[in-house]
Design brief:
about 170 residues; alpha+beta; Peptide Deformylase; globular; EC 3.5.1.88; metal-binding; protein biosynthesis
Length: about 170
Amino acid sequence: MTIKPLIILPDPVLRQVSKPFERVDADLQRLSDDMLETMYDAPGIGLAAIQIGVPRRMLVIDLSKEGEEKQPLVFINPEIVSSSDDRSVYEEGCLSIPDYYAEVERPAKVTVKYLDREGKEQSVEADGLLATCLQHEIDHLNGVLFIDHISRLKREMVIKKFTKAAKSKVL
């Protein structure tokens, strides 16, 4: 397993729409292992393939707490098939937007269909943190960032801050 470098805002790669996988094979399974390793190293609770520069529809999540046994989840070609009318608000952060957090309102429950690591069709009904995390990571696959769900003023301030930081690294 290899820890991959994370793509950081304002990199335009984060705005790409990811393409689905046609088949589940050993290369895809290796990619999911690398993504999990990268996520654990960061550390984070979710990671979309686009965040390591791979514009394909896969994400990984692990909501286990520190000290608990890891519970990695791999979602290939995930798709939200239904979402509740009730809403919930969570403070979200993102490995591609380090050290920035904001409250985001999303549907409280979602049903997601996807392929697992073996290529079998699965479906999960999620609420709480898992629902939020799935929506956040699926947004990534569609070129959407969590800051797109906050006010325009706050979003522009964050983008400006990260653009400035990126320019100072180049010099």
